[in-house]
Amino acid sequence: MKKADKHKKILAAAIHVFGEKGFYNARISDIAKEAKVADGTIYLYFNNKHDILLTLFEEEIGKLIVQIKGAIAEEKDPRKMLKIFAHNHMKLVIEKKELAEVLQMELRQSSAPIKQYRNTSFADYINIISDIIHMGQEIKVFRSNLMPGVIKRAFFGALDEMSRLWILAPDNTYSMTECAEQITNIFLHGIVPAESH
Amino acid sequence: MKKADKHKKILAAAIHVFGEKGFYNARISDIAKEAKVADGTIYLYFNNKHDILLTLFEEEIGKLIVQIKGAIAEEKDPRKMLKIFAHNHMKLVIEKKELAEVLQMELRQSSAPIKQYRNTSFADYINIISDIIHMGQEIKVFRSNLMPGVIKRAFFGALDEMSRLWILAPDNTYSMTECAEQITNIFLHGIVPAESH
Amino acid sequence: MKKADKHKKILAAAIHVFGEKGFYNARISDIAKEAKVADGTIYLYFNNKHDILLTLFEEEIGKLIVQIKGAIAEEKDPRKMLKIFAHNHMKLVIEKKELAEVLQMELRQSSAPIKQYRNTSFADYINIISDIIHMGQEIKVFRSNLMPGVIKRAFFGALDEMSRLWILAPDNTYSMTECAEQITNIFLHGIVPAESH
Amino acid sequence: MKKADKHKKILAAAIHVFGEKGFYNARISDIAKEAKVADGTIYLYFNNKHDILLTLFEEEIGKLIVQIKGAIAEEKDPRKMLKIFAHNHMKLVIEKKELAEVLQMELRQSSAPIKQYRNTSFADYINIISDIIHMGQEIKVFRSNLMPGVIKRAFFGALDEMSRLWILAPDNTYSMTECAEQITNIFLHGIVPAESH
DNA sequence: GATGAATGAGACTTCATTCAT
DNA sequence: TATGAATGAAGTCTCATTCAT
C-alpha cells in the first residue's frame, strides 16, 4: 500500500469515528482499529490528534469547494446558481454524512486552531455564496440594499440547520431536495405573497 | 450566602468557562476557581461535569423561552412577530454572549444526552417560530406552499449563523440589530426585487 | 440527652455501619445519619474515623470479657467451663451479630493500631481459654503434653470460623448451639487424657 | 518480557503490597512501583483495583487446591490425610506468607464480590477437609455422630487462627510444624471413636 | 515503515475533617 | 454543644503519545 493510501485510510477512519463520537470522545485507538492500523502508525502520518482533525478540514473542504465551483461554473443566472449551491450542499451532506457530522460539530468548537480555521479555508466555501450575491446585485437580479455578507451567512445557516436535522434523524419526512428547493425559494422570493408587496 | 446563590454562582462560572474553552477543555478546577469555591463544593450542587452542562441548558433555555414569548405576546401581526423574534434573539446573544457561545458549541455535540436534549427543550424555543408561521399562513399573510417546519429551521439557522460570526468577533462591522433587520427582511420579501416577480 | 448517651448512640451506629459495609467502605456521614446526628458532631466525641473503631473494640470487647468471666465464674470443672465459653461465644455472636461482624472483619486488618490492639485487649478474651486449659492441666483433667497457647487459638479459631459461616448466612442449617456442642465435644475428647475415656 | 510474565509480576507485587498494607490502604502506585511498571500498565492487565484482588484469589487459591490434593493423593488413611493437610497448610502459610496474609485479611471483608468468592472457589479448599472426614466416617475410623460440615470449619479455623499468630509475629516460639502436629492430634483423638483408643 | 506495549501526566471525583454560625 | 456546608488532599483511572523491536 502506498503512503498516500494509508494517509487516506486513516483520514476516512477519522471521519467515521469523529462523526460518530465527536472529537473528544473519539479515541486514537478507535481510529486505528477502524483504519486497521496500529495506534503508533497514525503518528507516522499525523502529528497528533488535533492534526488529524485539521488535515481533515483542510483536505475535505478543499474538495468540496472544487466540486461546488465546478457545478456552478456552467450557470450564468445567479438565481439558478443559488439553487444549484443549495442542492449541491444537501447532496454533499447526504453523500458524506459522516464528514458533514464532523464539520457541524467541530467547526463550532472554540479552540484556537479551529477558530482560526473557520476564518480561512471554511470561509472560502461560504464566500461562494457571497460571490453569487455580488454577481446578482451587479446585474440587478438581486436587491442591492441587502448586504452580501449577511445573506451568505443567512443562506448557509439555513441550509446548515436544515441538514443538522437530517443528520440527527435521517429518516425525517422532508426530503433534502425539497428542503433545498424551499430554502432557495424563500431566499429568492420571501415568505410573504408577492401580490401583497 | 444561600444555597441557591451558590448554585447560581457555579452555573454562572460554568457558562463562562464552557463558553471560553468548550466543555471538554474546561476543567472542574477552572469552574471552581471562577466561582471562587473549592473543587469539591461543585459536587455538592451537581452530580458531575455533564450534569452542570445539562442543568445549564435546562435552566437557561427555559428562561429564554419565557422571555421571548413575553416579547411576542403583545403583537398580532405575524410579520412583526418574526421581526421581534429576530431582534430578541440577537439581543439575547449580545446580552448573554457566554451562554450563547456554550449553546452554539455544545448543542452540536452528538453525545446521547445532548441529542435528546436538542429534541425536547431546545425544540420549544425554535417552535416559537413555526407557531408564528402557522399563524401567518392562516391569515394569509404568509404563503401557504412553504412548510413551517422548513421555515422555522431556515430562519433560526440564519440568525444562529449570523450570531456565531458576532460571537467569534464581536467587533465586526455589521451591527446585530441591522442583521436581524436584514434577515427578517430577506425572509419576508426575498432577495429578488419585487417588481421582477 | 447526656453526653455519654450520644457517645453510645454514635458507637452503636458505627457498629451497625461498619458491620454492614466494613470500615473502609463506611462513610462518616453513614454513621452520622444512622446515629441521627450531624457529621461534625461525631468529631466532638471521637478524634477521627479510626478512633471510633478503636474505641469500639476497647469498650465492647471489655464488656464481653466481663460477661464471659461472669458466666464461667460459678463453674469449677474446666471441661464444663470450656463448654460454657463456647456456648457463650456463640450466644454473643447471635445477640451482637453486627459487632461480631465488625470484629471478624477488622481484627484481621494489618494496620498498625489494629495489630497492636490484637496483641492487648483482644488477647485478654482469648486468654480466658488458656487459663481454663491451665487449670485443667493442673488438676489432670486435660492432657499436659498439649500446649495451652496452641489449644486456646485452635479452640477460638474453630468457634470463630464457625460463627463466620453463620454471620454470612444466618439461615444455615447447623444451629449455633449444636455447633458449640460439637466443637467442645471434639476438643474435649481430644484433650482429655486417653485413660480417662 | 512476555505478557504473561508481566501479569505475574504485577500479581506478585500486589500480593506483597496488599499483604503489607491491606487492600484499602494499598495504592495502585505502590503496586506499580513494587512491580517496576508505570501505574497505567497495571490497567493493561487488570480492569481495576478490585480485579487485581479477585484475580489473585482465583489464580492463587486454585494453585493451592491443586497442590494440597496432590499431597494427599498418595495416602489412604484419613487420619494421616488430615495430618498431611495440616502440615501442608502450615507449609503454605510459611512459604507464601504474603499471600496468606492477603487471604486472611481480605476473605473476611464483607463486600459483595468477596462474599460470593468465599462461597465458591475458597469453599473448594475447605471441602477437601470434609471429604476426608466423610471418608473416615465411612471406614469407621472417625466417629459418625459428628457433622463433617462442622468439623471442616473447626479444623480449618484452628489452623487459620494459628497461622495468623505466626503471620503477625513470625518469630514466635511455637514452630508451625509443631502446631500442625498438636492441632491434628487434638482433632484426631476427639473424632476417632473412643473404643479404638 | 509498522507495531502495540508501556508510559505518566493529569482529569474527575470522593470524603474525612474543619469551622463559621 | 450542635450543625452541615465547605474544603482540598489524594486516589483511581484514562488515553495521547512514545519507542524498542
Would you give an account of this structure?
The structure is a homotetramer of 197-residue chains. Chain A is mainly alpha-helical and 197 residues long. Chain A has 2 domains: 1-46, Homeodomain-like (Arc Repressor Mutant, subunit A, Orthogonal Bundle); 57-191, Tetracycline Repressor, domain 2. Chain A is built from 10 helices and no strands. Chain A starts with a helix and ends in an 8-residue tail after the last helix. At the A-B interface, helix 1, helix 6, helix 9 and helix 10 of A face helix 1, helix 6, helix 9 and helix 10 of B. The structure holds a DNA duplex (21 and 21 nucleotides).
Mind sketching the topology for me?
The structure is a homotetramer of 197-residue chains.
Chain A: H1 3-21, H2 28-35, H3 39-45, H4 49-73, H5 78-95, H6 97-106, H7 112-118, H8 121-138, H9 148-168, H10 176-189
The first copy, chain A, binds a DNA duplex (21 and 21 nucleotides) through helix 2 and helix 3.
